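Researcher: Let's run the pair from yesterday's discussion. Sequence first, then tokens, for each.
Model: Starting with the first of the pair.
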Amino acid sequence: MNTIIRKSVLGIAGLAFAGGVFAGPATAHAAPSVESTPVAVAVQADTPSVDKAKLIPHGVQGAQSHVDLSDEQVTNVKAIIAATKKAGMDERAAVVSIATALQESKLENLGHLGDRNDHDSQGLFQQRPSSGWGTVEQITDPEYSTMAFLKGLKQVDGWQDMPLTKAAQTVQVSAYPDHYAQWEQQAADLVAEHWNS
């Protein structure tokens, strides 16, 4: 009988100890109370979304390509968008510009590539000083090169109603006129993500 009572007392003491450990310190040893003061919480207002129907009004043509972008490439995307806004053009113009730069340079601001160079093409849009696009310093400046591209785009009658690849090709006069189409979805996604940022 003593063994049963001893086990019961030890069991109850163990439960009391475990309860104290899990429940926290006794009130005599409790941490001092902290006054509750209201905390200001910053809430970011929703930025207006881009009308995605305006970004790809004709649907994409053919298989789409995609590249993962570095921080430098994203910076170039933002520079193209800023220049598009500065030129007073809309999101669709930014999509055409970014798709063109994706095709021409993968959004890398390329200098002269030596033997791998296509003539004297440089910058995001692979513009050529010898073709009147500007000096090397100018066409390797993302804002300048974008503004030069957009100036050419503005001169294309009805570019807004053309498939992207035709609008881009009319400005760029590439040996591969259909290659711009493959970048339309990624360009549209980038404009949707960064137009209001």
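Model: Moving on to the second of the pair.
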Amino acid sequence: MFKQILVGSSLCAGLWMVASPAQAQSSAPASPAPSDSAPAEPAPDSAPAAPANREVSESEVEKFASTIKQLRTIQEDAERQASEIFEAEQLSGERFSQILQSQRNPQTQPTPEVSEEEQQQFERVSTQLEELRQSTRQRFDQVFQAEQLPRERFAQILTLAQQDASLRERIQQELNGSEQQQ
């Protein structure tokens, strides 16, 4: 239950905090495999500072829960699209990661060596994943704007929810209540 919140939030935070295409590409290979759909936690240096406002109003809980649900839907769509990109280019996520790693660290050469065709596939996938990352980020921006919940406050509430069982329960109740209404 709350794990879903953390998974969705971490994924969302990770995606909108990603600044460089290389970081987005390194997380993208997990997308093609359905069993690997759980996101990685954002880097520790991207964690928000201690929240200044420890009080979370009911309105904020509602906005937070609504934001989580919308971001989760966008993320699921992005994962599906990433999977389609890999499939269309006939390049596995694992092979993509090997090639990416070898570009980041030339001493780590993948086995077998990268063929000219694989290099071209890699470049096409990289370009498409960067476009997908930008599109996903724009969609995330739209959600935050529509919900009138600044990212900084979203991150603060997430941090508070990780520390406060009663807040987690309030959020979970809101998530459950809004899911039953649909």
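Researcher: Give me one sentence on the second I can quote.
Model: Confidence is low (pLDDT under 50) at residues 9-51.
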